[in-house]
Amino acid sequence: MKKVLEIKNLEIEYFSKKNKIIALKDINIDLFENEIISIIGESASGKSTLALAILSLLDSNAKVTNGQIIFENENLLKASEKEMNKIRGKKISIIFQDPFSSLNPTMKIGKQILEAISNNPSKQKVKNLLKDVGIQDTTLRYNQYPHQISGGMRQRVMIAMAIASNPKIIIADEPTTSLDTTYQMQIIDLLKNINKKYRSSIIFISHNIALVSNIATKLFIMKEGKIVERGNTQNILNRAAHPYTELLLNSLFKMDRKEKINF
């Protein structure tokens, strides 16, 4: 398989007037065509920093001190803002964890998706995208505002925007955090279907190792800015090599490992 993204020896620090914090340390990840991988870790482990770094959306107090992010034979860390604008949302898209704050509350859903389409935007294409993410009554939904639909449906709208330009890579940054268990599994199934139909590679970021066992073929376990374990999903779930991974598994439920894997 062909690599679509290479992250090599990436290191990022956050600076303040008094000190610095190492956010990422020696991160190495390869993403292949049509692959779904997952980055797992607790809050502040560096997962979202990694996602933002790929799209050059880091805060001004963040500094890349080492490494490369290679996409289409170019180092994205060296790309200009003009060059990144041709990539963001078009070749690499992102689904944020809070769709309500990510969507424009004053703009109808259909128009927001329409603006995300880079090639031949049309109302019919928007309706087709809504159907692809499992939203029915497309004419009604097209003309509604974000506050008029449920949280699960808002997340589906965000996914429709993410796939609007058929990107090579989709970054899903905790896309199920604000949803209940039923909606979480619906979003997981939806992303798997998107992966099959659109052939987009997916980076699924989460703190829930049981949840991602249903979607990712490979796991990268992050702790304090470092990848402490990586490998095939089922191998890690059955034989975790790092104590931190074992803690993540044990913290989920008081049940045996087989039940956790089948979550």
Mean pLDDT: 91
Counted up, domains total: 1
Name the CATH architecture.
3-Layer(aba) Sandwich
Q: Widest sheet: strand order?
A: 6-7-8-3-9-10
DSSP summary, beta strand count: 10
β-strand percent reads 25-35%
CATH topology: Rossmann fold
User: Can you write the helix and strand succession as a string?
Assistant: EEEHEEHEHHHHHEHEHEEHHH
**Structural class of the secondary elements?**
alpha/beta
CATH hierarchy class name:
Alpha Beta
Instruction: Give the full name of the CATH homologous superfamily.
Output: P-loop containing nucleotide triphosphate hydrolases
Q: How far is the N terminus from the C terminus?
A: 30 Å
The biggest sheet, with number of strands, parallel, antiparallel or mixed sense and barrel status, is: 6 strands, mixed
User: Percent range for helical residues?
Assistant: 25-40%
Could you name the ranges where pLDDT drops below 50 across 5 or more consecutive residues? 253-263
Radius of gyration from CA coordinates = 18 Å
Anisotropy-based shape:
globular
Number of helices: 12
Describe the protein's architecture and organization.
Helix 4 (109-116) runs parallel beside helix 7 (151-163) and helix 5 crosses helix 7 (151-163). This protein is globular. Strands 6-7-8-3-9-10 form a six-stranded mixed β-sheet, sandwiched between helices. It has a four-stranded antiparallel β-sheet with strand order 2-1-4-5, with helices on one face. The longest helix is centred in the last third of the chain and has 18 residues, at 181-198. The protein has helices spanning 47-54, 81-85, 99-102, 109-116, 123-132, 138-142, 151-163, 181-198, 209-212, 233-238, 243-250, 257-261, and strands spanning 3-15, 20-32, 36-40, 62-71, 74-75, 92-95, 169-173, 201-206, 218-223, 226-232. The chain has one domain: P-loop containing nucleotide triphosphate hydrolases (Rossmann fold). The chain is an alpha/beta fold and 263 residues long. A hairpin with a 4-residue loop joins strand 1 (3-15) and strand 2.
